[in-house]
Design brief:
Structural class: mainly alpha
CATH superfamily: MFS general substrate transporter like domains
Radius of gyration: 21 Å
CATH architecture: Up-down Bundle
Number of strands: 0
Order of helices and strands: HHHHHHHHHHHHHHHHHHH
Number of helices: 19
Oligomer: single chain
Number of domains: 1
Length: 428
């Protein structure tokens, strides 16, 4: 299990590294480099628009790779998705700017961002099913929390490289070539991930389906016909996590540097500390969820986020590092409370024959509702000079929506009969 979990963590870390490297670049440099003919505000909106394309592609990727996972196995998904995302990310670092290529530059950026999202749409489902379908029932949340740590690791890695470059290069050097380095590094990371995943075995659940010839012929059709309500509820429930995460990691970075005039390095540092704390807390929350259940923690996390959105925006507006770090840190821990369990929760909601498609589409559809829209909406709402309370209203509404969706979902924690018996227990 440790080897499987480590391979899942490494893969999600690498793929989310690719995704987050683009988000940071969108907040800092893509506007002036690829959309120089419009105002700074419109340039930022256009950059966030290309950022959002990746989220729109993710559900399509989950359909494509979910079909492969349910028909041909979870293992091929892990290889193909990592390869696609890695190649697209390296290519982003090679795209000429608007000054050299004209309108072709943002169009190329758009296509590559779409391919990034397509690959990432398959990654999460394959990674969590690899661990969920191997893990013992009484420790399933713990083992599936490893791939859930991957996004935090990927974010810290991507922004750590950006932070180092930002601190050591001049603004001219960073705009000229420094921002491209994190994208080039993705090629090395993807190669390492492919070597690690090449030795993985197929999951027992899929092998059993293959032996019984019980695989779904059209998994997406079956999910939409029989489980459409479940799909919408999981997407709605998870949308607050995406909204919160990309508010902190993408929009606040742009808002702090462009509107508040804060130092880019300081902003990145505050965000990285909060995200690192979230990653470290994920296995601890998972241990608790194996005892208490999945749904209670999702409800607690959503309620905490609904209560914290106004303090978060108020603390960000101060521009003071300590207060911003407090706002980011509390929000990310509330986010972790809900998201640490979803690697086990979503697969448990679906039967094995359609699990790869159902879990992945629900997870990535939430990315469209939360991640793609939020930076655009927040940028548009924060146009005035005062504290952007309208952003807090929007985020609170998303949190309440997610809370309502989780209230309508069932608990899936295995019964005590599914857990290992004590040494002196009588045989069943």
């Amino acid at each position: 299990m440790l080897r499987l979990a480590a391979a899942s963590l490494a893969g999600t870390a690498i793929e989310f590294y690719d995704f987050f490297a683009y988000g940071t670049a969108a907040a800092l440099v893509l506007g002036p480099l690829f959309f120089p003919t419009v105002s700074p505000l419109l340039g930022t909106l256009a950059a966030f628009g290309t950022f959002g394309v990746g989220f729109i592609a993710r559900p399509l990727g989950s359909v494509l790779f979910g079909h492969i996972g349910d028909r041909h196995g979870r293992r091929p998904v892990l290889i193909a998705s990592l390869l696609l995302t890695g190649l697209a990310t390296v290519a982003v670092g090679l795209v000429p700017t608007y000054a050299r290529l004209g309108i072709g530059a943002p169009l190329l950026l758009l296509v590559l961002r779409f391919l990034q999202g397509l690959g990432l749409g398959g990654e999460w489902g394959g990674a969590v099913l690899l661990t969920a379908e191997h893990a013992p029932a009484h420790r399933r949340v713990l083992w599936t929390s490893f791939p859930q740590v991957g996004p935090s690791v990927g974010f810290v890695l991507a922004n750590g490289i950006t932070l180092t470059l930002s601190a050591t290069l001049s603004d001219a050097e960073f705009l000229s070539w420094g921002w491209r380095v994190p994208f080039w590094a993705a090629g090395v990371l993807a190669l390492a991930g492919l070597l690690l995943r090449a030795q993985l075995a197929e999951t027992p659940a899929f092998r059993e389906l293959a032996e019984k010839e019980d695989r779904a012929s059209l998994p997406l059709v079956e999910v939409l016909r029989r489980h459409w309500r479940l799909l919408l509820l999981t997407a709605g429930g998870l949308s607050v996590g995406y909204s919160l995460f990309y508010t902190i990691t993408t929009w606040s970075l742009s808002y702090g540097t462009e509107r508040l005039g804060l130092d880019r390095t300081m902003m990145l540092g505050c965000i990285m500390v909060a995200v690192a704390a979230s990653g470290a807390a994920t296995p601890l929350v998972a241990l608790f969820a194996d005892r208490m259940g999945r749904r209670p923690l999702c409800l607690a996390g959503c309620a905490a986020l609904a209560l914290w959105m106004f303090p978060l925006i108020g603390l960000l507006r101060t521009g003071r590092p300590g207060l911003m770090l407090l706002g980011f840190g509390v929000a990310m821990l509330a986010f972790t409370t809900a998201f640490a369990v979803v690697g086990a929760y979503l697969p448990e909601l679906y039967e094995p024959r359609i699990r790869c498609t159902g879990a992945a589409v629900g997870y990535n559809l939430a990315g469209v509702l939360g991640g793609a829209v939020t930076p655009l909406v927040a940028t548009a709402l924060a146009r005035g000079d005062g504290t952007p309370w309208a952003v807090a209203v929007y985020l609170t509404a998303v949190a309440v929506l997610s809370l309502g969706c989780f209230l309508l979902l069932p608990e899936t924690r295995p019964s005590p009969a599914a857990r290992p018996a004590a040494p002196d227990a009588a045989p069943a």
